[in-house]
Here is the input.
Amino acid sequence: MISVEDFARDAEKWFAEHTPRDVDFMLPLTFMEVGTDQQFEFLQNWQRQVYDAGFLGAAWPSAYGGGGLTDAHQSAATKIMREHNVPIMMNTIGLSWAGPLILDMGSEAHKNKYIKGILSAEDIWCQGFSEPEHGSDLGNAQLRAVRDGDEYILNGSKIWTTHGHYSKYMILLARTDTNTQNKYAGLSFILTPMRVPGIHTQKIRKLTGEHGFTQTFFEDARVPADGLMGAEGMGWKIAMKTLEFERGARGGQAGGFSVTEPDPLEILNLARESGQLEDPVVQDDLVDFIIEAQALNLNGQRAKIGALVRDNPAGLPLINKLTKSEFAREINQYALTLQGARSAYYVDEPNAVDGGWWHRAYLNAFSATIGGGTSQIQRNIIGEHVLGLPKST
Here is the structure.
């Protein structure tokens, strides 16, 4: 096996030579901002290049298309990706949620069928959890799945299905039993093909002006029953494990990154260019941002050291999910305040600072405070499962 050091050197050389720099259109800052076919095709091709070079899925089993190396190898490659500010990995739901889940709980047939396509970006995945009428009450999902021989017949709809119009597969939480008194016991988890009769998507225009989200409709759609994970009625348990991957509370993701994180030093440059760097109040604010960014970085490193988090291994990742998403919103909002009246200009307007980059980053930051559990729900999870506080009545 190649050493981590040699692997990192290979990654450094490859990304130095192959990272795209002269892209003549706007690249998304997050996987949820992919709104045009041009962006999608570029990022799909980029992910395939990184995978073919061996720097994505390095720690996934070679039997299913991974690199067969270790988490340390993949971490080294991902770190170098950030240092080179490479484009995001767009197939996030496959790489970071569905793929790790299938490797952890899927059948041998599931692993052989799905894993390689996730890594190569041939198979794009979306998530079918939220529904229009139920908000954050995931346990009350009503999309019906009725067993008919070797198929399930699906009726209902899901919303906020990122990349739904591009996706080949969906991780779907569906109700298979309406008679049980326990609503959670009536849910099942189905790996669902999207390109079948009876399934169609409708794009949702976002605050940022693009259509990264869709609503997905199921009308007597027939899907193979062999997509069922676990047994019927296990859907809630499997969905909760999926959310552990989504929130970073469980490892095993394929690598890369799906969100361009804010850099306090870039805010410092913005303050300098706007002539406000000598203001002691601005200096104090910038120091606070730099301290918080470093704390989040160190917490992320600490979470990977078992001896330091033995009492509650999921605690720091759950806290980091909340604090990082709120930090991104706050620091990007501060960047706009430094721009004064010019903050009124948006993308493609001649007087926009940095082409409207900060405006996009600010508006996009709100999605991270909602996805994977809103900040309000995340605080409840931390209170109950990390701090041991009682449920409110």
